[in-house]
Amino acid sequence: MSPALPRHLDPAPPPGPLPARAAFPSSAPRLSLNGDWRFHLAPDPAHVPDTFWSETFDDTAWDLLPVPSHWQLHGYGAPVYTNIRYPFPVDPPNVPQENPTGCYRYGFRPPEPWPDPDRSVLRFEGVDSFFTVWLNGTEVGSAGGSRLPSEFAVGHLLRPGAENVLAVQVHRWSAGSYLEDQDTWWLSGVFREVSLHTRPAGAVTDYRVHAGYTSATGEGVLCVDVDADAVDARVRVPELGVDVPAGERVTLPRVEPWSAELPRLYEGSLTAAGTVVPLRIGFRTVRIDGHVFTVNGRPVKLHGVNRHEFHPDRGRALTARDMLDDVVLMKRHHINAVRTRHYPPHPYFLDLCDEYGLYIIDECDLETHGFILEAGRRGNPSDDPAWEPACLDRARRMVERDKNRPSVVIWSLGNEAGKGRNLHAMRAWISGRDASRPVHYSGDVECSDIYSQTYREHAGVEHIGTGGEHPEKPYLMCEYAHAMGNGPGGLADYQRLFETHERLMGGLVWEWNDQSLRTRDPLSGQEFFGYGGDFGEEIHDGNYIADGLLLPDRTPTPGLLELKAVIQPLRLTIVPRSGTVGVTVRNTLRFADTSALRFLYDVVTDHGVVDSGPLDVPVIPAGGEATCALPGIAATGRETWLTVRAVLAAATRWAPAGYEVAFGQARVAEGAPPQEPEAAARHSRRPPAAERLSTDQHSPGRLAFGEGTFDVHTGRLRSLGGTELEGPVLGIWRAMTDNDREPGAEPRGSEAARTWRQRGLDRMRHRTDRVHADDTALTVHGRLAPASEQFGLTATYHRSAVPGGLRLRLTAAPDGPWPVDMPLPRFGVRLAVPAAWSLVRWFGLGPGESYPDSRAAVRVGRWEHTVDALQFPYTFPQENGHRSEVRWAELTPSDGSAGGIRFEGLPHLGFTARRWTTEDLDAARHPHELVARDRVHVHLDLAQHGLGSASCGPDTLPAHRLTAAPMDFTVVLRAIP
After folding, report:
1. 477-525 pLDDT, tens per residue?
2. What architecture (CATH level 2) is domain 678-975?
3. Among the CATH numbers 2.60.120.10, 3.90.650.10, 2.60.40.10, 2.160.20.10, which is that of 207-284?
4. pTM as predicted
5. In this predicted model, which residue has the larger pLDDT, 4 or 475?
6. Is 819 exposed, middle or buried (0-12, 13-18, 19+ CB in 10 A)?
7. Residues marked as catalytic
């Protein structure tokens, strides 16, 4: 440490902490120091109360703050979110004088007797960002590296059986903050557990498990090394008949290997000096074979996520339940890998990954993104020799803590830290310490055993898969498919590439969960999830923090359901044959067979499920395939679909029996188009409407035609079946998604969609040019165009009468100098119906929302929801709730009373219904700002533009773009009496 710098500003690690070691439980005494601590927040280090660390200091006037926690989430200052930019001047290693400093005090009484008190150790699992510790008035050391543990020897100060006073000073900003620019909230404090341990003489204080597996023979090799002091340590694994001194290598003729699919752990123990360390041993070997990533000799694809530690109320101060919830949700959605972005997680999370089965890319607590924000920015710690000790210290502490985890299959140097000599030094140290795992880094291919990139477009990934760019290394998308808001689109297109090319390891979606914090509107008191800018930050990056597959409260988004369907471990193909239906099941797993599953079939029409039963499928080995036949399906006279589902035969640790693991669906019979509204059977039918045109005598200015009345000047429908309506009129605007617009401070978003608002597609105006009527049709010619522009769309509405309603054929075409390469957001009609019509039934894709490039998770069926349930409450309001390939949909009163409307596609339509307008949705910044209107607003679409992933990833693929071209859309509207 340089004497010229204050301790928290010195880039070099302070000398106080004990050497890094593995995290493990032990029978040696341990005392939790979690609880309510006395707390005072000073505005800067100069205003820290004098001698607050003294035993005699009077802290009775101080507040109580729970440990673990972040002080900003308990009313002391405010959280700050930035993605890349440092929230303080960039002048390493200096930080602002305005540096809030937390002062903590805690009294505790170790029980007496307390064995080996002179060998006692204080352990801090995580403190943000730099802290100094005193015990009983004596300083014991300082530490940085916020997401890593630090231990201090305190045996010479501890008083068993008596009151002890622990004092901790925590700086919000430190030199280490320059290494922790990690696209998350800047939150401070003692946010992980604090505990007191003893290390009895001769007991194990550190150990390392070597548990290799040879796939060709099934042989396992076990050796457990211990620290030099534990001279009498012994390893026991009763199930394997192992009882040997530590350090002895044991060859086992046959073991069951560990993998994410079959996470086999052998329970054992490591004993020394009367203490017991429980062991959980997973035999597995990780190698790169040529340019293929393998586990236990088999190629493995990573279907993963990037996970920040986060809770909307507790920030990074997670509970065991929070972590278990994450792991269970991951397993339920077929996620098999996690990149611990961008720091080592809480050690309990890795316990769960060992037990439940997840491949872990353990990432070092290092990111210096703010230094590579712009070309030519100098001083990046990654390439400054003064920062090498700090970088190496973080790498060492990660590896030593997590070296015994079978779930950890890859070490990662960090994220977005540019290039530099310190990264190479980290790589060299890690490889020298642990050659059993590859090293990953996405910023410099020379530092990595894996060619890793973020957000490469599909065509580029295919080029790499066929041998382009560093062909000697496997290729990993360590971040892809930016899951911000409604999206990501294109997951299925990526998955096809991953499965086609052996070199492609797969990818990890960005990211697992929205990191928005629960807060309240100061005026209304309504609760909502806040993002950047909601807490008075000086600079921030908006809702770029809300980019997860889960909402902040861990509600799965449609994006997570889409990912589950895309990466489901079985491919079920249904092929109708003469007299039977063939079902082919392909098992894409690498290690597990299908013995834990049973198979079911459902026969579906617009009446719902009309037949169901078990399907006899033989057990399929990993990588295998089987075909079976289903007897012929009875004719229904209607459009008929067969759904085959694989479900859990028995409960597992992560899901109950009957939980759906995979599904496949195919149409097995065509059907006649729907003719009459189903709800009509509940009510008396009105007489068939005359198809002649007449003036409505009761409503001046209106024309009566069939079941409808129309405005005589505009030709717009004003009522149907006697009920007032608004519309339908041509609509092309959708509330912009996060992938359409430019979230945060960076110039991101869809390049094509970026022009939508610039060119006025959100403010289109209608014009009626001509209304023509005869006895069989009412035709309206018009134009839709934005202010200040010469381009627009010509539109012709051709209406004819049908029993109980109207048929509308809408044709439209671009008119004038349409902007080159500007797609349409959507194409269809919009209308408004009575608010009481709030129950929705439909036959089409469901039950969730779907879009052109995000529809793997839905299936054809008869579904029912309320209008409110159709919505999905993305953290930032945006287009949502669209149902695709709808054959018919009905809106009726939820109380069962008379009335309603039915929409029929010819053959299909897209359907959206909500209690607010698209303009309301587009203007809102939080869900609680959306206020229900006195109508239900409906969109019936011919098509929508895809979602893409352009908030950070690639734009919508050409196949999913809605090109501006002549359109022809027909829909039937029927009144339900």
Report:
1. 999 999 999 999 999 999 999 999 999 999 999 999 999 999 999 999 9
2. Distorted Sandwich (2.70)
3. 2.60.40.10
4. 0.96
5. 475
6. middle
7. 416, 479
